[in-house]
Design brief:
The complex is a heterodimer.
Chain A (H helix, E strand, L loop, with lengths): L4 H33 L2 E2 L8 E2 L3 H8 L2 H33 L5 H9 L6 H12 L5 H8 L16 H4 L1 H21 L3 H9 L4 H12 L1 H26 L11 H11 L3 H25 L8
Antiparallel strand pairs in A: 1-2
Helix pairs in contact in A: 1-13, 2-13, 3-8, 3-11, 4-8, 5-11, 8-11, 11-12, 11-13, 12-13
Chain B lengths: L1 H32 L4 H6 L11 H9 L2 H33 L4 H11 L5 H13 L6 H24 L4 H9 L4 H12 L1 H17 L2 H6 L8 H15 L2 H35 L2
The chains are: A mainly alpha, B mainly alpha.
């Protein structure tokens, strides 16, 4: 190697410094400053920042909408995890274990919504739920269940559950592929051995497939939880704007409301800190809960 | 026995077929709606359009800002993807191959940034852009997009660089090649698959992005597709331009369909690996 130490450090600086600068300015600084802002009252623009200590956090605890937004977020987390994991596991097992000729077709189709814009998904599902021309009400009428039809997204009780299906629709393909990758790595000989021992296919699924695919299952659950807590407000914003009367408001959409619509930037930052803490705590808790001894046969 | 097997297989297929219809139906409905008049959409939502005229597309493109938004989206997507690559490629090389003190710490810092919700950061970022007079600026938005995807891109690129044999770099160094030459002429071509994988994923993300554009852009002329489609959807209650709305959605989704058709493998690999980091 014919290069001096200076040249080596210059090259290292060339590789790292520009990235570190933009990362510090556009990722680290905003997060730290967001934390700082949560101790102030501030209406933005020309107004002065006023230090109010923990007032924003006290307000957080007494704001009647906050518990609702937390509950709505975790409702979406739980229903999405259950819905996506059941369907994705079923599809993954069906497409890997049974030799189906058209399996690639299903793989390609099921994955496509994963790369569609949430805005488009939200708008399309608004039409599916549309009381006049939507397929859900039309389908219910067709099978004689007129009494079940309702303006889904305009109904206080049904608006939030109605957001689950579009989210499952949009997410399933990725997790199906993750699980398929895991299942295809399970050695065939294990199933043959289980067959000889007389294990039913159902037993084989629980005793062979699930333990060996556990890393992928765990990853999928964690990923659904993280993306929901950090991003559920996007589909809420597009489909319901948090309404009717806050019945679909989640933490992120409430932050947007408070900060960018009502100009309570300090309070908005406090909501942001809450989102950060809750999502980190949830991930740590789940990592502990889903821990399993690594299985080797 | 054979009949039983056949029945089981058919039974298992039914959910697959149903879900395939559930996925395809809204997308086909959107494309068909793009050719219908407003009356047709409400009178016969299921029927095929009477004629395949492209009036809705023209109207969406010119009257509803889809045209300008399409070009804005192209700008932020291309610029954001390129910027992200310019930042991430040298950094990935340094982390994976130069092994300086703290390289592992740096890598872990980037990794943990992938899990942190950025909503909190959007408030200070908004005021930072305001102070720099970069609100409503597509170049600033591209730069922010690029920075948000740096951790993911570094994650993908380092894993590809780990597979490049070290001897190649060593012999090039002995031949007197500078480290810059090694990085750009030897390593870069060898991790091209990784570069494509990460860049396609980034491009899809930027093309679909909505919330940051909503906050950091202010005027109709600057809006990207996500914001414009959302606005069209809100206004359609008053303008009744449903056909144009579907045409707008179709215009926005066609590039994604094309990218998916050409780069399916890369997209799938990029997304599954991005998720597997856990």
């Amino acid at each position: 190697m014919v290069q001096s130490k200076t040249q080596k450090y210059l090259f290292l600086a060339f590789c790292l410094v520009p990235t570190l600068i933009v990362f510090a300015i556009f990722t680290v600084y905003p997060l730290v400053n967001g934390l700082y802002l949560s101790f102030f009252e501030w209406s933005g623009m020309g107004g002065d920042k006023m230090f109010i200590g923990l007032e924003n956090y006290k307000r957080l605890l007494s704001d009647p909408i906050i518990p609702k937004t937390i509950w709505h977020d975790y409702f979406l987390v739980v229903t999405k995890v259950i819905g996506i994991m059941i369907l994705a596991t079923y599809f993954a097992v069906a497409l890997t274990q049974l030799r189906i000729k058209e399996a690639p077709f299903y793989r390609i189709v099921f994955f496509f919504p994963n790369i569609m814009s949430v805005v488009i998904i939200g708008i399309l599902w608004q039409f599916i739920y549309n009381p006049g021309i939507g397929i859900i009400n039309a389908g219910l009428e067709a099978v004689g269940l007129e009494s079940w039809t309702r303006p889904w997204l305009g109904n206080l009780d049904w608006a939030l559950p109605s957001l689950v299906l579009p989210s499952v629709w949009a997410g399933i393909g990725l997790f199906m592929l993750l699980l398929m990758g895991g299942i295809m790595n399970v050695p065939k000989s294990l199933y043959e051995a289980a067959d000889i021992d007389g294990a039913s296919e159902w037993q084989q699924f629980w005793k062979v497939t699930v333990p060996l695919v556990w890393p992928q299952i765990k990853t999928s659950i964690l990923y659904i939880v993280i993306t929901t807590l950090n991003g559920s407000f996007i589909i809420v914003q597009v489909m319901t704007r948090g309404g009717p009367s806050n019945s679909t408001e989640v933490m992120g959409s409430y932050l947007y409301q408070q900060a960018f619509r009502q100009y309570h930037f300090g309070y908005g930052a406090a909501i942001g800190v809450m989102i950060l803490i809750l999502s980190l705590a949830t991930v740590l808790f789940l990592q502990f809960l889903l821990k399993r001894e690594k299985v080797n046969y | 026995m054979k009949v039983g097997r056949f029945l089981v297989k058919t039974g298992i297929r039914i959910p697959l077929i149903i879900w395939a219809i559930v996925v395809i139906y809204p997308i086909v409905w959107m494309f068909l709606g793009a050719f219908k008049s407003n009356g047709e959409i409400f009178a016969s939502p299921w029927a095929l359009p009477h004629s395949f005229s492209i009036d809705n597309f023209i109207s969406a493109w010119t009257d509803f800002n889809i045209g300008s938004s399409f070009l804005n989206s192209i700008l932020v997507t291309v610029l954001g993807t390129l910027l992200c690559l310019c930042f991430s490629l040298p950094t990935s090389y340094a982390i994976e191959r130069l092994r300086f003190r703290g390289s592992q710490v740096l890598f872990n810092t980037f990794l943990s940034a992938m899990m942190i919700p950025m909503v909190l950061g959007w408030i200070p970022l908004f005021f930072l852009l305001l102070d720099l007079h970069m609100i409503d600026n597509l170049f600033a938005l591209s730069l922010i997009y690029a920075v948000t995807q740096i951790p993911f891109t570094i994650f993908i690129l380092t894993s590809f660089m780990g597979t490049v044999p070290k001897d190649l770099e060593e012999s090039a160094a002995i031949d007197g090649m500078t480290p810059y030459g090694i990085l750009f002429k030897i390593v870069t071509p060898l991790v091209l698959t990784g570069i494509i994988t990460a860049s396609i994923m980034n491009a899809v993300m930027f093309w679909n992005e909505y919330f940051m554009a909503l906050i950091f852009l202010q005027t109709e002329a600057k809006n990207t597709l996500g914001v414009t489609m959302d606005l069209m959807n809100r206004e359609a209650q008053y303008t009744n331009a449903w056909g144009a709305l579907f045409a707008g959605l179709s215009i926005a989704v066609i590039p994604i369909v094309l990218i998916y058709a050409f780069f399916q493998r890369h997209i799938v690999k990029g997304m599954t690996e991005g998720a597997l980091k856990g």
